Amino acid sequence: MTIGVKKVSLTRTTRDQIFLPAIFEGLLTTAKHFFKNTLTPGMGDIETIRYGDPDVDVKDYYPDRFRGVHRLMYREDGSVRCVACMCCSTVCPANCIAIEAEDRNDDREKAPLSFVIDELKCVVCGFCVEACPCDAIRMDTKEHMQPTETRAEAVLGKVDLMSRGGPSVAVQGGVSPDYRAEAPKADPRFSHDPR
Amino acid sequence: MANEIHPSATPIVAGPAPKSALTPPRAPNVPADPTPGEETVTVNIDGEDVAVRPGTNVLEAAKLVGKDICHFCYHQGLSIAASCRQCLVQIDKMPKLQPSCQVGVRPGMVVHTNSEAVLKARREMLEFTLKNHPVDCPICDKAGECTLQRHYMDHDHKLTRVDVPKIRKAKHKDIGREIVLDAERCILCSRCIRFCEEIPGTSELTMVSRGEHQSIDVHSGQRLDNAYSLNTVDVCPVGALTSKDFRFAIRAWELSKVDTTCNGCGTGCAVELHTKHEQAYRVVPREDHSVNGHWMCDEGRSTYKSLDAADRVRHATVDGEQVALPDAIAIAAKRLRGKHIAVVFSATATNEANLALAQLADLLGGERFVLGRPPGRGDEILRDRDKNPNSAGALAATGAVSKHEGELALELAGRAYEAVIVLADSGELSEVSLGGLRGITSVCLADRHTPLADACTILLPAASWAEVLGSYTNRQGKLRSVQPAWRAEGDRKHRADLIRDLLLAMGQRDVPTARERTQRLAEAHQHRQLSRLAQDPTPARPTLLRWANSRG
């Protein structure tokens, strides 16, 4: 098989070298779109969603897996679900999570004394959510981090993070309360039925 | 306790301390190399022949050919229980799988450690062990260095098939001064029970109940309060026994470790110092069969607390004013010259620092003393009554000590000297003696702010034991290496280098640096590892614990 070679002339014509015709062609295209989109009722072919329109909830347009500002979930009794296992701070590539653990002196034993996320450092990768074994940290707020006047305001503590949080009844190791039902059953040949 | 004495009863007596005998704890299962001419047994493990001494068990023999047989209850330093059944191997001509920890080698034995039957048994034993384990790794202090976690990842790695409730047992039960028990996490390997029986001989722990409800507990009316109790946390392959001091402090995988020597007493146990961000979190024992075996005492584990960042001396001070280190050295050198001086060596400082001070004392003359911590409790296992890591080394460096510590205190109080140089901030002097320091030229090389350091007119910032490369001489006369866990911050410097600066400021030439002194000492004692470190300190950099093997 032979491969054919197509030769293209790259020499500039006089028209190219003047530049002006090309400029006017471009301006003409821009003007055409400008008049079409401003004068046509129904906004022509604009597809931009107007941000901040009270009739439109931006969050509806975001996919479910959009990663927004973090939040911390809580248990039925209102205490934070986090057990300070440090999995999120370990996996965080930006090193933006700082947790200090404390002893709760009850059966849940361990809880975060402080839980601080520096949203300025965060790279919004979502690894912390995947690493969390307790469904404590989520990024499903669909909120962008708002600009702040000082850096300190962008550092969110446990109270800020829990104010966005909601109740979660997940058991450890799963997201739904009846994960045992989904777990593979034991082989019936080996089950010990007392009857 | 036979050797227990009141701390203030006897002062440190000047002159060579009587060497107290140390019998290193016996590790029953550590395989010794066959001596030449000795009869050996040759066994075949996974196709490889290995010759070992008779009496070695199959598990240790397999280690020699690089086969790590997974196990929970077996420990080199303890007797054999063969209760976990995790180390089962197939041996030709034996009808069933055999626990490799308990079976001794026989001539012509053919062992398979990775056959189909062995892998199946290993997997199923692991599943059985995990049946009642709560898998609360997120709140378990052992997570990250847990043997059960490691074996699960290596050999099982499956979802649970258990659909019946797990047996509930005691959680976070306070069973001793230092220890919290979580009976649910326990896999009943009995290592802790055997430890308490065999090493301190106190037998506080036992098994209670039977079958699924079996758990470890302390005997009624007793608490796990022996002086070596924290070793049970180290031998525990899971998080059933955890340390109160380390509880929830940090996750194990965040720590870095450096091999060093305990500075709690004259024994000089080989230890690892675990640190993160220039902060120490714990001290754990390291294997050294010539000194401490696998163990160390609870007292020694709290030595890391002296490294607290809050009271570190970071800059030089002269008469209460902070000055640059070279200026402070120049002032000290000027003020120390030509005075009636007391040179105070330290039993807590390294050999290098004491040798450097000896060189300064030769130049300045004056009276020589050794100051150290007051004596405490000792026993026949590891703890020494002398709570200084380097008494032997300090005394050797001093040459001749004519007066003891008590006389120093008296003479300082009576203002017998015009100048004093103190090598380290440890040691207790009375208020009156400290008052005596304030009036005269007193130079202290301190890493921490202590009453002694703060009473001196010139304070030079010295690096602590976690920041220097150096050596101690323990009570057996062995050279023990100290390695840096982090770079000394601020103006802090090795004590030997500070004294070197002083000597140079006094016009001396060719004063060896701390590293040169370390190397000379290491070569004199044929301590090859320390000698290598002194030439190239790179290997002394801490390793992240997550890359090290699991402990326990």
Structure overview:
The complex is a heterodimer of chains A (195) and B (552). With 195 residues, chain A is an alpha+beta fold. Helix content of chain A is 25%, strand content 11%. Chain A has 7 helices and 5 strands, in the order αααβαββαββαα. In chain A, the strands form 2 sheets. A 3-stranded antiparallel sheet of chain A has the order 2-3-5. Chain A starts with 13 loop residues before the first helix and ends in a 13-residue tail after the last helix. The relative contact order of chain A is 0.14. The model of chain A is unreliable at 173-187 and 190-195 (pLDDT under 50). Chain B has 552 residues and is an alpha+beta fold. Chain B has helices spanning 58-64, 116-129, 147-156, 191-198, 231-235, 298-301, 325-336, 351-364, 391-398, 405-413, 431-439, 451-455, 495-505, 514-524, 528-535; strands spanning 41-45, 48-52, 88-91, 98-99, 110-112, 173-174, 179-181, 205-208, 215-218, 241-243, 256-261, 270-276, 279-285, 316-318, 321-323, 341-346, 367-371, 419-422, 441-446, 458-461, 470-473, 479-482, 543-544. Chain B has a 7-stranded mixed sheet with strand order 15-14-20-19-18-16-17, sandwiched between helices. In chain B, helix 7 (325-336) crosses helix 13 and helix 8 (351-364) runs parallel beside helix 9. Chain B has 3 domains: 41-121, Ubiquitin-like (UB roll) (Roll), CATH 3.10.20; 130-248, 2-Layer Sandwich (Alpha-Beta Plaits); 311-542, Rossmann fold (3-Layer(aba) Sandwich), CATH 3.40.50. The radius of gyration of chain B is 27 Å and the shape is elongated. The A-B interface holds A 83-87, 90, 101-103, 107-110, 133-134, 172-173, 180, 183-187 and B 135-139, 143, 159-163, 171-172, 247-249, 251, 253-254.
